[in-house]
Amino acid sequence: MPESTSISYRGRLAPSPTGLLHLGHARTFWIASQRCCERGGTLVFRNEDLDPQRCRPEFVQALIEDLHWLGISWTEGPDCGGPFGPYTQSERRIHYLQAWQQLRDRGVIYPCTCSRKDVAQSATAPNDADDEPRYPGKCRPSRDSRSDSLSGCRAEAKRGALAGMNWRFRVPDGEEICFEDLHLGHQRIVAGKDFGDFIVWRKDHVPAYQLAVVIDDAAMRITEVVRGADLLKSTARQILLFQALALSIPKYYHCDLVRDEAGLRLAKRHDSLSIRKLRSLGWTPEQVRG
Ligand code: GLU
Predict the structure, then answer these.
(1) What is the pLDDT of residues 226-283, one digit of tens each?
(2) Residue 16 beta carbon below 6 angstroms from any ligand 1 atom
(3) I need a labelling partner for 50 at 20 to 30 A (CA). Which of 91, 147, 211, 243 fits?
(4) Is residue 130 part of a domain?
């Protein structure tokens, strides 16, 4: 069946309400909504509000208003319900907890006491500005003999309490994660080289983005993820989690990043380019989309 006539397309908008919608994310969301619309699909709005330190409920309302103003609409979300809700991540902790338990029982995650500062200080490779420093492996359980090591890792993980520690996914060193990106073409990212063991559960008892997004994309039957190219390595991490949890992997479309005249990536701190600001300056939705 040609891609354009697929009837089962399910896409999503997955903003984190940490600030006002800015031009970079608005462009990604516009592409996501267009791709969904062209394929006669269903668009899901998911509120990724897991980080209590950074997310604010007032930004959710502002995001919804700005997206509607831009001409983007969805049929499943916290504001309109739907069959795969709730669509607010802070209300879905039970699902993430179950996944954490499965990963722990399979021996693929381990508790880690390193602080963010420890990791930043001991990271050996030069840091990719879009990505976190590679974890140097201080708390990674050793694997001397294959069978002992796996059961040792499981036993150790089972003893660890969930709270008070970070839990990391042990990446298969040297394994290539390859996928065909629908915009950027063939991608090849090497575990243990391009990224290291990553956090799936934070010591402040918050499920990490990588875990939550995989659980939700699977539970909400998302068939295509449209996101910025700054998340390419996160996509590779998530593919490992989909595989570890035996969940089906969506297709990916990574958008080019919007840059300013100096070539710098637009980030949320460029408040001058928030959609609110542009609206107040009299921009029309057509001008913003263009
Ligand atoms: N919530 C994430 C963000 O706003 C992106 C989610 C995703 O595309 O997976 O940066």
Answers:
(1) 999 999 999 999 999 999 999 999 999 999 988 777 777 766 456 668 999 999 999 9
(2) yes
(3) 243
(4) yes
* Ligand 1 atom closest to residue 226's alpha carbon, by position in its atom list: 8
221 near 248, Cβ under 8 Å? no
Token pair 């701190």 in the structure block, residue: 269
- Residue 54's alpha-carbon distances to 18, 32, 49, 58, 219, in angstroms, are 5, 24, 8, 12, 25
User: Among the three residues 212, 229, 246, which one is the final residue of a domain in this structure?
Assistant: 212
Looking at ligand 1, which atom is closest to the CA of residue 12?
A: 8
pLDDT in tens, 108-147: 999 999 988 888 887 665 567 778 899 999 999 987 544 4
Shortest-distance atom of ligand 1 to CA 227 = 8
Nearest alpha carbon to residue 119 among 140, 143, 96, 104: 140
Q: Whose CA is nearest to atom 6 of ligand 1?
A: 14
Tell the residue number behind the tokens 């420890």, with chain if given. 118
